[in-house]
Automatic annotation (TrEMBL):
Gene3D superfamilies: Aldolase class I. Its main location: cytoplasm. Residues 1-233 form the Radical SAM core domain. Probably acts as a heme chaperone, transferring heme to an unknown acceptor. Binds one molecule of heme per monomer, possibly covalently. Binds 1 [4Fe-4S] cluster. The cluster is coordinated with 3 cysteines and an exchangeable S-adenosyl-L-methionine. This is Heme chaperone HemW. Its cofactor is [4Fe-4S] cluster.
Length: 355
């Protein structure tokens, strides 16, 4: 079982961000963390302890987890420690402007062994355009600090497909990232979502599939292999085990306002409102996921990454389509699994098979 913990506070709202996060509710931090602990205790009792399960990975995301003082996390780690698998991967997201040396050191002392920095770019003009609160130097320093403290895993997020991006400009970002002691790179194509400052500004995004392929090839030449449509790792050990858990359709607890959990073929959704969540952190909406939806999700997620899809999942008609795709050199079959050769085509392949 996986555990996701949502921290909905940010120093500033990035212009592309559609996540459940707030820049004007800092006075609710302590109350929010207390409510989060109540939900976590309830989830541990009902889903982990009751069924004698172990937590394989923990991911603290946001928002910005580094806006919360480490002391607020202490009780959380005390609660989950008895239920962690040995050598569990424990990741926190962090922003360079708030992840000080002291904050990173304190989080490592609590048990965090992997940190994911929302860098997005090392170009200061691009950072301003995206609405980021840090600059290139602070991003570089944060990564260097994490390495000197001794984090085993360090991820760097980079966004591409932004207005004025070219292969050459992106190479500069990637070269800077690879000059630093990172073990993992996430390269995300900019998406324009409703409710963001970039919504209705289509000019800020470049739709260039050829650029994506060139970027993927360039990252590969730097010794980082692509194991999912947006994720690259220095070696097998550096791949995100938490993300793989989602792609393998494992169960996960979602703790916090706007988090999502998946247990017993149901998704549950705590309130997105901070005030409502603080009042009643145990209230949530339930959604039943039927077998057909589970199959569709397994296929979509399996084609997005190196995990592949169990061939036993497909019926006779779908297997004929898979054989067609094998003949067209789009997929291959190995060890009773179907693997995608081109992650950018994952949705199209899934739709073709399931249609």
């Amino acid at each position: 079982m996986l555990l996701y913990i949502h921290i909905p506070f940010c120093d500033s709202k990035c212009f592309y961000c559609a996540f459940n996060s707030y820049t004007d509710r800092f006075h609710l931090k302590h109350e929010y963390m207390n409510a989060l602990k109540l939900q976590l205790r309830n989830n541990l009792d009902n889903y982990v302890i009751k069924h004698n399960k172990k937590i394989e990975t923990v991911f603290i995301g946001g928002g910005t987890p580094s806006t919360i003082k480490p002391v607020e996390y202490e009780e959380i780690f005390e609660m989950i420690k008895p239920h962690l698998e040995e050598f569990a991967e424990i990741t926190t997201e962090a922003n360079p402007n708030s992840a000080s040396f002291e904050w990173l050191q304190s989080m490592k002392n609590l048990g965090v062994n992997r940190v994911s920095f929302g860098v997005q770019s090392f170009d200061n003009d691009k950072l301003k355009f995206l609405g980021r609160a840090h600059n290139s130097n602070s991003a570089i320093k944060a990564i260097q600090n994490a390495n000197s403290i001794g984090f085993k895993g360090i991820n760097c997020d980079i966004i591409y497909g932004v207005q004025n991006d070219t292969l050459e400009s992106m190479k500069k970002d990637f070269d800077t990232a690879f000059s630093l002691p990172i073990t993992h790179l996430s390269a995300y194509s900019l998406t324009i979502e409703e409710g963001t400052k970039f919504f209705d500004r289509s000019s800020v995004k470049i739709d260039d599939e050829e650029l994506s392929y060139k970027i993927f090839d360039y990252i590969n030449t730097k010794g980082f292999h692509q194991y999912e449509i947006s994720n690259f790792a220095k070696n097998k050990e550096s791949e995100s085990k938490h993300n793989y858990g989602y792609w393998q359709h494992k169960e996960y607890l979602g703790v916090g306002a706007g988090a999502v959990g998946y247990v017993n073929q149901h998704r549950y959704y705590p309130s997105k409102s901070l005030e409502e969540y603080i009042k009643n952190p145990l209230a949530c909406e339930l959604e039943k996921i039927d077998e057909n939806d589970i199959k569709t999700e397994k296929i979509l997620l399996g084609f997005r990454c190196l995990n592949g899809i169990e061939i036993s999942l497909f019926n006779e008609q779908e297997l004929k389509k898979i054989n067609d795709l094998v003949n067209y050199d789009k997929v291959y079959i190995e060890n009773d699994k179907v693997f995608n050769k081109n992650f950018l085509l994952s949705d199209e392949l899934a739709l073709y098979i399931l249609d």
